[in-house]
Please model this.
Amino acid sequence: MPPPVSPASPPALFPASFADLEPFAGWALATERERYARRLSSSMDELQAFYDGAFPRLGEIIDYLDGFELRALPEDATRLLWLSYSLVNVSFPVEVWRQPRVPDSGAAALDVVVEPVV
Model:
């Protein structure tokens, strides 16, 4: 009798060497508007957890992505790039401001009108 067939695992969102970052896949957002909205809707505990989990890997992420032409990134590497963009987006709130919004900015908002190439 053949062994039971197990259900297929969902495809990895990031390259295999970055599988430990999968819990933060919700931060792999394609646009600045999405990343900014996610930051503003997150608690400081959520921002801190993302920062603490991803920041130590940032150098490795950059080294990995440097191995590709920007316009020829595989899908999993593109999501890794978007994750790093989100990490940059949360760095000041975590490292400096200790709050998701820019201090003393009131209701001011910033809309990016041109997105990065990828």
About this structure: The chain has a mean pLDDT of 85. The chain is about 45% helix and 0% strand. Helices lie at 32-41, 44-54, 58-65, 75-97.
